[in-house]
Fold these 4 entries.
Entry 1:
Amino acid sequence: MCITGGAGFIGSNLADRLHADGVEVVIVDDFRTGRREFVEELLSDPGVSLHEGDVLDRRLLERALDGCDWVLHMQANADVRHGLEHPRRDLEQNTVATAAVLEAMRAARVSKIAFASSGSVYGEPEVFPTPEDAPFPIQTSLYGASKLACEGLIGAYAHGFGFTGLAFRFVSVLGERYTHGHVHDFYRALKRDPTRLRVLGDGRQEKSYLYVGDCIEAMLLAAAQHANRPGELAVYNLGTDETIIVDDSIRVICEHLGVHPELEHSGGRRGWAGDSPLIYLDCTRIRALGWAPTLSIREAILRTLRWLDANPSAVEEEAAVS
Amino acid sequence: MCITGGAGFIGSNLADRLHADGVEVVIVDDFRTGRREFVEELLSDPGVSLHEGDVLDRRLLERALDGCDWVLHMQANADVRHGLEHPRRDLEQNTVATAAVLEAMRAARVSKIAFASSGSVYGEPEVFPTPEDAPFPIQTSLYGASKLACEGLIGAYAHGFGFTGLAFRFVSVLGERYTHGHVHDFYRALKRDPTRLRVLGDGRQEKSYLYVGDCIEAMLLAAAQHANRPGELAVYNLGTDETIIVDDSIRVICEHLGVHPELEHSGGRRGWAGDSPLIYLDCTRIRALGWAPTLSIREAILRTLRWLDANPSAVEEEAAVS
């Protein structure tokens, strides 16, 4: 299996899991956000190879795909919040990049793709929990729009070229190697200044989180189910059956760190333009395959915090990048 | 108002209509599919200007936008059927081009956009007539996927940058200056050989058509309604409350031409991969604004045939291109 973004947060966890199962793993990563330390150990093993570069490098990608049956397409710009500051970034790194992956797959005669989509494609839904066939949404973020565009491309390749397609609409994913997002930002800020914490929005935004290990099990289960269904794009929500408000997730972090900051809310229902005040996905479809998350949101946050404690460089390096 | 693709089928009809209303019209067209003869007369009038080039030419577009309040973004690759032969074309000419239009608008401080989307974004819907908030569809064509991606971008610009957005999901549009699609193809084929006609699919595909004049009235009505609603993308289906099967539309053409060809169906429910066996849109939303089509599907086909009769060059030139 070829994993694009295989040195990233979810991608490298996928790589570990597949390798442990004896699956041959080909990692494509340009290390723009992926990290060498996430795959260094793995790469010393036979059965794991790395093609260093961008998926837009057609030759590199075709070489990487040679002999693969699946592409687990995880590479993406995952910076949801700053889309408006760089309006072309999501288009180029997500939409155009996915089109390039699909064309390289066609050339290399690889026709199975599992895609890391996002619950943000629902924009601000009106139905909760939100099912995969919710009313046709209006997009509210460039990130969500780009992920939706990718799903559309994969659907068209499935229908037109007989590809087998899977799209996973994730809630926010947490766990080992988590290096961006709410929990990371709050942790970093509290490490710097435990007396006060700036919170975007009113802190009442209701979010969903999923543990990366649970996320991966769901993806692999669905991939096994759909391996022999060419011509279809199947879509699965991946999340837990609970939500947590931002202020409560901050509380978990503060308890863990033993700090008591004053919270300074920027106000408003949304943390930023495109931030959804409520994310809560209906995961009946993936649960019907026999999957269930093993960790609650609180447990997933704590697992993440313990990993950040043990890997202070993940926090520092991120600071150096941004 | 700036009309991209203003020398094309729908764009040039829009230009005529707006000019007749005394509105200043700026046409952007690269004449790849637009035609000089559609705008020649108009361009001799004051109050109408042409910027010849592609919307990807940022400078040209910004110059064109100077002083405009609305962009009517009609420029597109409208070749639905051959998407799979040129998998990057819809992405580049529709999705990336629309991203470029939005960025040029932001630079030029123009924030109102009406976009020619398509009923093909519904893929193969399960609800008929299909409303704008139908269950979240799976894409079945690269054309539909690209139009959906454009809608997503406009939604994100509306939400993030306060743009006023309108997306019109058209059924197939017919009328004066119609130069591609079913009716055109059948007319051309029967002019060449009136004894036999090859029909893609089983001829039972059920299609909807809308007269271009009715289409334009609907667009302008919605634009007037939404002119003062920044931050929103509003979506409207545009069609008639009827459908016609492909074989029946062929019958109308044959009667008009006085020919009796033998029909040779290629078979299958779809004419090509991505062809929807049934297109029938719920137009309650646009009708609630007071709009209704003035021509039936049959009348729209006949109006189109009469225009093709009077403009044989439209058929010949198209043949030279394809």
Entry 2:
Amino acid sequence: MSFELTILGCGSATPTSKQFPTAQLLKMQERFFLVDCGEGAQQQLRRSKAKFSRINHIFISHLHGDHFFGLPGLLSSFHLLNRSTPLHIYGPSNLKAWLDLTFGSTNTNLVYPLVFHETQNKEKALLFEDDKVEVFSFPLRHSIATTGFLFQEKPKERNILKSKIDEYNIEVCDIQNIKNGKDWIAANGKIIANTELTKDPTPPLSYAYCSDTSYLPKLNERIHKASLLYHESTFLDVDKKKAKQTKHSTALQAGKIATLTESENLMLGHYSVRYDDREAFKAEAQQEFINTFLARDLRRFTVSQDAIEFEDLNASKSEVDKL
Amino acid sequence: MSFELTILGCGSATPTSKQFPTAQLLKMQERFFLVDCGEGAQQQLRRSKAKFSRINHIFISHLHGDHFFGLPGLLSSFHLLNRSTPLHIYGPSNLKAWLDLTFGSTNTNLVYPLVFHETQNKEKALLFEDDKVEVFSFPLRHSIATTGFLFQEKPKERNILKSKIDEYNIEVCDIQNIKNGKDWIAANGKIIANTELTKDPTPPLSYAYCSDTSYLPKLNERIHKASLLYHESTFLDVDKKKAKQTKHSTALQAGKIATLTESENLMLGHYSVRYDDREAFKAEAQQEFINTFLARDLRRFTVSQDAIEFEDLNASKSEVDKL
């Protein structure tokens, strides 16, 4: 199994003609989660050919415009497209008042239910849970209340061995219990250990999202062995003072966090427009953490237990950002 | 002299990957006016290579998202770029409260003065005036309070004939009076008629913007002989009932308004995504008005007294919308 992460925008602060502000689409266990929603996110969703009507949950890390100014447009489009499925939005409390006024001002009564869930940035908190996936928020340290998000698969069922079903003539009604880890009692009363009947499931995958934040080593209390860690790297080490002042991070610091959290892979993004060369971000982070990748607009990552791959969607020669 | 109009977006309602919502940049007499500001306008401004720091006046026709959801992003970028020049915004009263809450929520104290001018849609009103240009609003008829805008050059000075300056030895101090249309009195007391000394100035140019609106024949009381009339054409005549219901217009109706207002040229836009063929809009309007042009994203029109021309910016083959 794998999850898919599509970068809709990886820029910071002021968008350019080639760089959209932050937005990401995560597909995990067939659930679609939108993580932040900078201006133009809905256009990028269309370019990525995502089935965006399947997004039922939107997570907003903080109320800086480059992370949420795309919400009114996207929510309006859902309205105009006659969406009926409830849409859940998770974000700071002020966001609700702003969305209410937005739709009040435009005289719009949304045709679908909008369910708002207020986040807090004091401690790790469960925001969403179903049978396969959990989503947590956790505090980051920025110039305004900001949370990161941790998306993780729930532990999976054990894989029952077909050969053992045949050998012991196990009935269908017992199989779920065995998948859940229980031993099995044969007709003759003999107890067959679960470990004989099953093999370990693939470990759950997880995606940790950290933007925007200053260097925060204690993130290792919130994130442990993420399959993929996204950590902002607005600056390079040469500008680490600027990073500290503005409560952002450098690529080197992002690499350190990947090491501290024992993550499998690191993705960088939220690059300041002051730098021309994005490879420099990668090289810098790799001084601390080798499995480092660069976010780019419309880059899609596929992450499984053993591998991480990416492809650039819409990568016609004339449109590829040379950076 | 001429004015320049750059179409940043010409779509309606739901943006697609190829069509931005409404925004236009008008350059008239070296003044830059932004007319509506749909989501993504700031990116399109960058793509058009406009000097967007020179925009000092933004006109918002009405509070439907596809006409103003790009404002927060653009205004934030001005802030981040340390703009100091005052920015004037003209729009419906609710817009101010929304912008205030937007920047309140994001904890942003804009570093430049934002001056809000409330529009009304009862009657024609002067919104802006300086020595060379006037801008008026006028009521349109839509599902929400909506105004059109009329940008017009002020009458220009008469052109003084150099040969006459020499012939009569006219002194510099008299020239401005003559340019203003006054007769001139020679040293011998003879009155020289202004018409002998000057020739007519080029007539003032004007641009009339009508979006969104249902068919409104009495627009001819507001607009007369516009050098260029932009009139929305969300629908084709085959869907005229739909146009009436939603208080939009058809291309045929736009052509009729161009005729009624005796405009020189007509530009269509605000196309519904339901149609594949934009040439059909042009053909339909031309049944009523021959000098019809199509708005397209990043198309720049240059309008003078005798001519209208356009070029498509950024028109690499892979990016040109085939529509």
Entry 3:
Amino acid sequence: MAATEDRKWKILESTRLFERPWLTVRKDKVELPSGQINEEFYVLEYPDWINVIAITEDGLFVMEKQYRHGIGEMSYEICAGVIEEGETPLEAAKRELLEETGYGEGEWEESMVISGNASTTNNFTHSFIARGVKKISSQHLDRTEDIEPILMNVEQVKELLVSDKIKQSLMAAPMWKFFATEGLL
Amino acid sequence: MAATEDRKWKILESTRLFERPWLTVRKDKVELPSGQINEEFYVLEYPDWINVIAITEDGLFVMEKQYRHGIGEMSYEICAGVIEEGETPLEAAKRELLEETGYGEGEWEESMVISGNASTTNNFTHSFIARGVKKISSQHLDRTEDIEPILMNVEQVKELLVSDKIKQSLMAAPMWKFFATEGLL
């Protein structure tokens, strides 16, 4: 097989088909290393995202319950959001946790950087662990957000995880990593 | 807070904006339980997907190396694909593994069902574990697929996982789950 550097697809044409605040669709005409042409390859362009496994001083996880219109179901989640222009991933993560739950402070570390779909999306999600957070303000949601924060103990979160109730893979991956590497399973 | 059943968003209008073989975009006008209206909520419609953690009789993992145009990088992956009409998730998983790698047979179980993005996509990914697979045919790729199968031992796959080289969250989540629950970390 060809070396890695030879495997990149060549973009022959690129058009932005659709551009709205929450959805940007790019259409690329690409040439594969084999010489094959793909006339229409769609890439969804997004800013990078963050999410946060936040744990209080008392060892409780700051979880969220939220209706998710894509799958049409209620979903148990961790705090997640978009990195705004000019923000670092860490700044965005701290801001989102404060807005969605009112929790802040604590010790923060980045635990992994992953893609929701490496084929069709161009962005990455930076996942953080925040230990020792405290309730320091009230919740401040956007007009169309509908998020219910819930504190859960480690056994309750583990139960969600092992019973596959953490449906969103961008959250399930760092949560499995955290539970596995912390010896919590 | 309202009960779960009261939290569902009401679809006031729904239009399919864009419909191509690899991308369908739906635009919904929705009403939240709060009464707030969101004039444009975009949902990406896909068929359900599968992926497979496949392990040979000799304990080697059937991995793949593939260029991913969304993130513009080479990616270490497990076998993944689309469930075709009329197929069960298991049938699709067996077909995809055979097409992409030439491996088949063995003992199969479904390990988890997750969403790439519960907010913006309407589909689920069924993740399988296949133990004791054998090389039973040659690879049969679609014209625009460019997949290099690689056999790796457990230490090599663990190294990919702990160093965050499994970039796709739909693969990282079931792989972390597998390594954690099998005691391989």
Entry 4:
Amino acid sequence: MLNAKEIVDKMLKNDSFSSWLEINIIDLHEGYCKISLKVNESMLNGFSIAHGGISYSLADSALAFAANSYGKKAVSIETSISHIKKVNNHDTLIAETNELNKTNKTGLYSITITNQENLAVAYFKGTVYFSEKNWN
Amino acid sequence: MLNAKEIVDKMLKNDSFSSWLEINIIDLHEGYCKISLKVNESMLNGFSIAHGGISYSLADSALAFAANSYGKKAVSIETSISHIKKVNNHDTLIAETNELNKTNKTGLYSITITNQENLAVAYFKGTVYFSEKNWN
Amino acid sequence: MLNAKEIVDKMLKNDSFSSWLEINIIDLHEGYCKISLKVNESMLNGFSIAHGGISYSLADSALAFAANSYGKKAVSIETSISHIKKVNNHDTLIAETNELNKTNKTGLYSITITNQENLAVAYFKGTVYFSEKNWN
Amino acid sequence: MLNAKEIVDKMLKNDSFSSWLEINIIDLHEGYCKISLKVNESMLNGFSIAHGGISYSLADSALAFAANSYGKKAVSIETSISHIKKVNNHDTLIAETNELNKTNKTGLYSITITNQENLAVAYFKGTVYFSEKNWN
């Protein structure tokens, strides 16, 4: 069975959308990860702020990395996000996971997305189901 | 005050991320829209299926278009999505809004995301706040 | 293995809170149920309208009945509710389930709560996990 | 205008359902509250554990008290709860609010529900809309 780092390396390999987002891994261990991206012009909507899908995508990747890093393939089944602060061009977004619950079958994670001034821009909550399939 | 089509045209103009997603407007009127995109290789994750952020981004745009088309600037305050079916490369995703509630101040929308075979791939729910600012 | 009706009868037997709510089963089959209650004075908050917990409790029971009626013990893992209309004393609330997705392991249900005038008062969404344990 | 304590006293007066739940206020100030209840037999479902509606109702009351205590009448518009641990008869449930965001118009609160052993039994998230009406 692979360890947390090997699993996420495998997930990121050939992951075109994460490459496009230029997701950067800051920290990672079983059930936890902290990742970031830098907002660029292609991520903006018509108001010249980041599209809500950018924060969501970063948090959804963080959820996937944290949950899969235990070694079982994990599938997201329900996620929610509250956007509370505008995200501007050139902002750095950091998503950090907090595991609220884990059983053999399901996991619950809250993820706070902050900017480079350490201000929260969005709160994400995600539930995953852990399958029987191992990463290898 | 602008009409629904003029407002969404204005929103889409200079909207780099929607351009990148190649979002296509199928139908649109006050409080309603139906939009689509075609999944391409850049939207895939390491499992060779579409990243969850792609369905979310399409639905979040649909929410914004439907809610803003009344003429008041609307802000998304809480959204959730349940992913229920894998989305493959070259699939077409269609997001259609259903307005569940609207007051002067807030609106509630459910959005179903289907693929080219008319099978649901995700269910999205979004709440917006209507500001006092008019589109003009 | 028990059938849908036998399972829900067993769930309701000794269910003190559902007795207190005076929940009434209108219709029931595998993966579906429609139940009601009549609001009384004990269910009101300080504004003389029904406490939000009343609609939630009715919908949560509907979720449990619909999901358990397949024969596997099902556990609710994530639920949300949007309250959109005031509920008055003596109103009848009806909760009807709609199964959006079902796999061996998880199920997703939307539940609309209407009043005696067939107007929606709340929208509920719930995800369950199906355990290996049979009802018997 | 009334202060936080006066507002919540007014909310609780004639609040029949909170009386039935025997909700107890532990701490309260603007934008914050901590309340509890003791589970009794009438709150149990057919599995002899507390019905999910009990934790929800406690958290929903906490949301209402925290948000209304600023002086403007606040309305809950979207709430979600994840139940993660069984609640037994005679357990004490404590709900404590954490204000994640507040603007003139909307507020976002996370609420953790713990038992007498300080173990989390549920996580609640709620969004409110602040009306123009003052408490007086």
